[in-house]
Each structure stands twice: as C-alpha cells, then as structure tokens.
Amino acid sequence: MLEQSDFIYQDERFADIQLLRYQVPGFKELSLRQKLLIYHLSRAALLGRDILWDQNGTYNLRIRQVLETIYTQYQGDRFSADFQQFTIYLKRVWFSNGIHHHYGYQKFTPGFSQQFFIDAAGQVGVAVDDLLPIIFDATVLSKRVNQAEGDDLLLTSASNYYQDGITQAEAEAFYARQKEKGDSLHPIMYGMNSRLEKRSDGTLHENIWKSGGMYGPYIDRIIAALKDAIPYAENQKQQAVIEKLIEFYQSGNLKTFDEYTILWVQDTESKVDFTNGFTEVYGDPLGLKASWEGYVNFVDPIATRRSQALSDNAQWFEDHSPIDPRFRKKECKGVSAKVINAAILGGDLYPSSAIGINLPNSNWIRAEYGSKSVTIGNLTHAYDEAAKDSGLRQEFVIDEPTLTLLNKYAGICDDLHTDLHECLGHGSGQLLPGVDPDALKAYGSTIEEARADLFGLYYLADEKLVELGLTPNAEAYQAQYYSYLMNGVLTQLVRIEEGHQIEEAHMRNRALIARWTIQHFPEAASLTEKDGKHYIKVHSYPMLRTAFATLLAEIQRIKSEGDLSAARQLVEEFGVKVDAQLHAEVLNRWRALNLSPYKGFINPEYELVYDEQGNVCDVEIRYGEAYDNQMLRYGKLYSNP
Ligand code: ZN
C-alpha cells in the first residue's frame, strides 16, 4: 500500500486543467463484502457516463468517437503542432464530458486547423462533414447553458434537454400545467428525468429516461450492476434502497423516485453509500432536467465526529440565526452529517467533482424526512495537498500578518465552512406558507448557495464553535473571512475568460456576497490598491460579521417570500458583471504564477482477485492509470452496448 507521503496527488496539466489523483484511505481495511458492494456500485456509477455526454449536447458522443478514433489510429506526425493541439482539445472534451467548458459553458475553440481534422478523419476512415460547423464554427451551439437575462434560454442553450426549436415560453407553460395538476404538498420534480420533445402536430411530450425508453440500453446495464450489488448490501434498509432505485429505472415514475429518495435519506446506518441517477439541475437553464451522476463513498469515522457536533446542535444554530424569526424552522430535524471518502466518481461528478454534497433536492422530502450532507474528505485532502506552495496566497494576500493568519487557520476554517454550509446552511430556514419553491427561477441556485455560505460565514465567528472544540480560538475565523472576500472579489476571476461574465451559481454567489459586503460595509472591508495591484483590506472583522448577518437576513427573506425581483436585482448587480480592468489585472498576476484554475480527478481502478479455486477473495485498488488510458477504457467499457 502506498503511504500518504509517497502518494503523488498532482498528475498532468493541459489548457486550464490540473488533474489530481485521490487516495481511498481505509479501503483495504473494509470487509470483503463491503469491498464487493463498492465494486459493483462503482460499475453502476460509471455505466451512466454516456447519458451525461448526450445530455450535454446532441453531438458529443459522435464527436468523442471520432476524436478517439483519430487519437488511437492516426498514422501521421504525432509531434506536429496540429496533432498536439488536437490532443489538448480531446483532453478538454473528455474533461467536460462534451465540447463545452464544464464550468463556463462556452464552446471550446480548437487549436488545430479544420484541414488537419478533415485529413486525419479521412485517414482513419470516419465521416465528419456534418461535424465541421459543430466543432469549428464559434457561432454554432456556442454555449451549453445560457442564463443571460432577456434571451430565450432554451433556444440559446446547446444542452440536449429540450428538442431543437422548443422555446422557453412553451416549456415553461408545459411544466406550469403539470404543476397545477399535481399534488402541491408533495410535488414531484416535474420533468427531471425526460427530454421535452415536439410531435409533428406541434404538441409537446416527454421522452422518459428509463428501461425501454430513452437511454434504455444504458439504464439496463446500470440496473444489472445494481442487481449484482444487492447480495452484498450491508442491511435490509440498504437493500430496499437499491431495489427501489431499480424499480424507478424500470418505470421512470417520479413518485417511485420520491419513494426511493425517502428510503435513501432514512438509511443512515450503512457505512457504504452511493448516489446513482438524475440528480443536479445546473445543466438545464430552466433548472428542471437533472444530469446523470454517480458516485460511491464510505464513512470516514474521525472527520465525521467534527460535522456530527454541528448537526447535534442544529436547533441551537437555527434558533440563533440572525434572520426574521418567521423564517426560522421551529424544528430542525434529520440533518445528518458525515465525512466520507469517495471510492469512485462518475457522470457529472467526474473528472470535476463537488467536495460537499447535500441531497435530496426535493424540498418537501427535505422538510419531512431530512437530508444527507457529506463532505468528501479524501478529495478535500487531495486539493489541499496540491494547493500547498502554489504561490497564489503570497500574491493576493495584502500583508505578512494576514498571510500568517491564513497559513495557520485557512485549512481548518475552510473545512469547517464547508461543513456549516452543507450540514446546516442548506437545511436551515423555511419558506412562508404558499410560496413556490421555484419562485426565484433562474436566480434560485445562486440565492440558495449564498444563503448556505452566509449561514456558514456568520457562525464561523461564533464562540459556540470554540465551545464545541471545532475552532482552536476566537480569532481563527478571520482567516476564512479574509480568504472568502479575496476569492469573491479577486482570485475566482481567474476562472473566467477575458470579456466573459460570471455564469456559474457558486461563483455568482461568492461574488455577490463579497462585492455586496465591500459596497455596503466599507468600514468593515474594502478593495485597496498598492503599486498597481488590488488587495482586500479588512478594517474590522467583527463588523464583517455584522455585514454577513445583514445580508443573510435579506437573502433568507428573499428565499422565504419568493421575492423574484429582489433576487434578480441582487444577483444581477453583484453576482454577474466583471470589471474588465480588474479582471485583466487579476489574470496577469495569476498567469505569472503559472497555475491551473480548474482541477479534476483520475479515478482509481478496482479489480477482483481470485483464489486458486476461482472464488473472489479480494478487491484490489490501483492508482496508477494515465488519464488518456482511463478515458479510452471507460469509452470501451461503458459506452452504448
Ligand atoms: Zn451548496
């Protein structure tokens, strides 16, 4: 077994991507039964990969096949500039599960010539004529998810959730009618597992993702892998979860999905857990259709104690939250919190992954049955290891004392902020009776992330955390306050291309909080200039906490009342626009450091080990696979049967 110190976390770099590897601590110590459960669930987590590729765009699977054929069979000069650029393009497409950037959503611009591509395709015998505008014309399908106000969000988005030609107004009317007809107390997540299509007579219908329906062959293989996992389930509850998920994949019935979700939320005893299915809605500009993702994890007992301390005190935090008492939950329940280690990442969580996950997304199930929050410890650890000595902090932190503060406390406070965000933030507060959970429309995700972040920021400075033994002293929170503002105003801009605006919900949220704060509370913190470089200067940390409390109260009001116009105004004013001059400065400073803004992970490999009688006696875990080999292997093993 590799010791922690021998493990190489950083792998290859290309374009704006740094690939990392993650270790799976504790895997070897699991029982054979648990290992086999993880083995089969891991296969299920990888088998939906092509569903996501197709969801991300109509041409993605074909383009991948063409690119991979050229990559593996090309006989020309593989050291030519064109082929090198072609390789980078393919690696980016692999990373994004399609031809659009995974985070900014803009279409990639190939660095190789169209003529090279035509010649190479001809040489390996694949037809590409109809793909040329898709790959080379910047005006065709230019954005995967467009959220610009005033545009028809469906006609201008390249994702494949709605058939070409269906307008935003048509889709919104279709789902408004479904909602009206449905159970308003226990609303199912209308539209989350289907593509909306138009018949020849102009009426709309849903093409359901299920066995025998759209994506049926993929779903059947996922079902088979889930069935292989059942004999190794840890207990009856977990077995019931897997069986209900299979039932959902077979019927596509969203009521069954809710039943599955409830069983899943209630299984808090199993050490191994998983997500497999249509989950997050960030890829749909209307926030209805869920992208496919899969991952498998198991509990990290030490780190779990930390977030358990928070969830044990959930009611205390809710009762002391600086929001209008009408918006507080009278009874905070079911906030389960555990730190887990990922065993495999699949679908929309691969290679770029979240480090904290809070599910389910159904509001009424969260209210009645609770939710599960996890921080993925081994991914966080891999990020931390890779970030050490990057030089970013030295460049953007204003002075030595602040740098010392961050070096001392930033790691622990960042973990704790993630815990507060996931374990308490999202679960806190309530809607006023009768408020539509989707009232904030396209602004809902940003407002929700801001709410959870502000909840965390506010409590990070609370003496309660010292009392619970979660922070070392009453000053440590200052490290997170500083780095949060620095990131929201300055350093996260490195993820945005010059001339672009902020699109992604988490980034919009960070910009919103940081920029609102320095505008409304200049006595707490400000943006200052020193030798042509901008820095965050904090004047008063306690005042900063007051600023966060003030904004939290307003964001919670917006959410609880469903105040769309206030949400729009806040997000548009503080979360979206980028100051071109400041952006250019940040990019220059950052380029000089020569770092990558995005990171993602290469998965470990699992392999069955047999004894002399031919029985499975162990599951081996290996870490060495190269990025391109892993992608090509997945393409072979998990593509259309
Ligand atoms: Zn969140």
Summary, kept brief:
This protein has 641 residues and is of the alpha+beta class.
From the structure above, extract its key features.
641 residues; alpha+beta; five-stranded mixed β-sheet; 24 helices; globular; disordered N terminus; binds zinc ion
Bound molecules: zinc ion
The percent range for strand residues is 5-15%
Helix residue percentage = 40-55%
Mean pLDDT: 94
What overall geometry do the principal axes of the alpha carbons give? globular
The spatial strand order of the largest sheet comes to 5-6-7-9-8
Question: Any overview of this molecule?
Answer:
By secondary structure, the protein is an alpha+beta fold. It has a domain at 300-598. Helices cover 47% and strands 14% of the residues. It contains 24 helices and 14 strands. It has helices at 32-46, 49-56, 60-73, 81-96, 114-124, 132-136, 168-181, 216-229, 236-251, 254-266, 301-312, 314-319, 363-369, 377-387, 392-396, 400-425, 444-460, 463-467, 477-489, 505-520, 541-561, 564-576, 580-591, 627-637, and strands spanning 10-14, 17-21, 194-198, 204-208, 272-280, 291-299, 335-347, 356-359, 371-376, 525-530, 533-538, 598-602, 605-610, 616-622. The strands form five sheets. A five-stranded mixed beta sheet has the order 5-6-7-9-8. A three-stranded mixed beta sheet has the order 1-2-12, sandwiched between helices. Strands 3-4 form a two-stranded antiparallel sheet. α8 runs antiparallel to α9, α9 (236-251) packs antiparallel against α10 and α16 packs across α19. The longest helix is centred in the middle third of the chain and has 26 residues, at 400-425. The protein is globular, with a radius of gyration of 24 Å. 45% of the residues are buried. It binds zinc ion.
